[in-house]
Amino acid sequence: MCGSLGTAVSDLQGEIDGTTSYVDGKALLDAEENKGSSLYIGPTQTSQFAFSGTDLLGAGTNNVYFILDKCISMVKNGDTAGLSGMIGDLQSAQSRVLCFQTNIGATMNTMELIGSRYTSSTLNYKEMQSDAIDADMAEAYTNFTTAKTVYSAALAAGAEIVQISLLDFLK
Q1: d(Cα 2, Cα 67) in Å, to the nearest integer?
Q2: Confidence band, pLDDT 50/70/90 cuts, at residue 149
Q3: Each residue's pLDDT tens digit, 76-101
Q4: What φ, ψ does residue 22 adopt, rounded to 5°?
Q5: Which residues lie closer than 8 Å to 50 by C-beta, 6 or more apart?
Q6: CB-count exposure of residue 163 (10 Å: 0-12, 13-18, 19+)
Q7: Are 82 and 74 in contact (CB under 8 A)?
Q8: Which intervals hold domain Flagellin C-terminal (predicted)?
Q9: What is the DSSP string of 88-109?
């Protein structure tokens, strides 16, 4: 085996060994249950926003780390025929990860759209409430002044009429 390839394989093996956690002798990613969380969006729509590591990376012999470990062993042992057979497993794992990446991107877009709609709706409702409840001060003052002027004119006209009528009565 080539020196630089052997070093790269050893480094990769160290990365894999360093990141796999075990619980009761079983790899943590294999032991994890599907703990996905979903968000209620509307009357008929929910969106899953959390995915388990088992769903993403696979379980058992389909686990990405298991496949990589097997490939590393084959490289160390010079098993090129077996390594060629692992290409399909690696492509399947890659496809699964890309599928999850697509789903996560779509979920993020949905969440951003929902947030944008919520913000827009909140602003619209506040504006509608303001239009219904709040007074336009300039308009209210103009209406008050007009009503006051009309009232004053009506009182003045009434006083004139009463004064003339009283004089006619006294004659």
Answers
A1: 22
A2: very high
A3: 888 888 888 889 999 999 999 999 89
A4: -120, 140
A5: 35, 36, 37
A6: exposed
A7: yes
A8: 92-170
A9: HHHHHHHHHHHHHHHHHHHHHH
